[in-house]
C-alpha cells in the first residue's frame, strides 16, 4: 500500500528542462495515469518515482517518507516496462520467481508465491515455457507476474501495452482494470494513448513539455478542459478549435468569427471584445434540417459504420461533426447545424479556459439549443 507524493519535482539534463515543478498526490490504491505526447517527460518522471533517476530539485514521498535520494530497493515499488525485459534463458516460473530468489526466500515459499501469481494471471499452463515460446500478450503477463510476486506497495508501468496489437491491447486493458480492482494496490501508469488513459484511470495527470496541464478524472478533463492543450489532446476526432471574438449583442454575450456567431448564455460584460479560441466537440454539433436556417458546406462525409464524420466548411474554418447514421447529408451539399451554449468552450490568448461566475449566466432554459448561422464562402 502506497501513497506517492511529488513536491515541486524538476529535472534538467544539462540546460534542458525536462520536468518542471511537478506536484502530484497519488492516493493509496489509486489508479493514476500519466498521459502526454511522446517526449513530454513521462518516463523521466516515472523513473524518478522508481529511484532510477534523481530529481534536480523537489521531493518525492512514499507514505509520507522522503525517498528522494533512496535507492530503488528501499521503495517497495515494482516497475513494468514496454519491452517486458524478461530473461530469455529462464522459464516462465523462474522469471516470475526471480525477484524472490534475489531476496533469499526458501524454494518452497517461492514456488507457492509463483503458483499463486500465475493462477491470478492465467499463466499456470505456461510455467514451463521460455519467453520465446510465448505470444506478446503472454510475455507481458509474465512481466506483470514478476512485478506482482513481491506484492509491492505500488506498480509503476511505462507504456506496458505498446507492443501489443490492437485487439490484445484492448483485452489487456480490461485485465489490468480487473487486476487493480482485485489487488487494491496503487498503480502509476504511463501512456501516450488517450484511450488507455480514459478507460483505465481513476485520475489522469496530463503532461505537456514537462508541466502538468491538468489533473482530474477522465470526465473532468474531457468535459472541462482547463487549457487548449487539454481540449485538443483528449477526444477523437479532436475538439474543433478556432479563433473568435466575444461581443455583446441583445443583452447577451456571443462569440463571432467570420461566418459564425453563437450566443453563450452569459449576461455580463466580462471578456467583451476579447479574442478567444472557441472549442466545440464534434459530437456536440447537431445537423438539422430546419428550413430557413443558415448553412455550412459539407466538404466530405466519412462513414465509420455506426457513425459518420461530417467535415464542414464554415467561413474560413473547417469543423468536424460526429453524427449517428444514417444522415441525409452529402459532400457538396449545404446543411444547418446547432450547438447548445453549454457545449461551447472558450479559451483566452494564452490557451487558458475562460469561466464565468454563476450569477453572470442567463437563466437556464432546459434543452435550449441555438442555431449557429454558418455563412459559407
Ligand atoms: N538521460 C537523458 N539525457 C538527456 N535528455 C534526456 C535523457 N532522458 C530523457 N531525455 C529527454 O527528456 C525528454 C523527455 O523524455 P521522456 O521522459 O523519455 O519522455 P516520454 O516518456 O514522455 O516520451 C526528451 O526530450 C528526452 O530526449
Ligand atoms: Mg517514455
Automatic annotation (TrEMBL):
It is found in: Cell inner membrane. The keyword Phosphoprotein does not apply. Part of the ABC transporter complex LpqY-SugA-SugB-SugC, which is highly specific for uptake of trehalose. Involved in the recycling of extracellular trehalose released from trehalose-containing molecules synthesized by M.tuberculosis. Trehalose uptake is essential for virulence. Responsible for energy coupling to the transport system. GO terms for cellular component: ATP-binding cassette (ABC) transporter complex, substrate-binding subunit-containing. This is Trehalose import ATP-binding protein SugC. Monomer. Homodimerizes in the presence of ATP. The complex is composed of two ATP-binding proteins (SugC), two transmembrane proteins (SugA and SugB) and a solute-binding protein (LpqY). Signal peptide: none annotated. One of its GO terms (molecular function) is ATP hydrolysis activity. Residues 4-234 form the ABC transporter domain. GO terms for biological process: carbohydrate transport. It is a peripheral membrane protein.
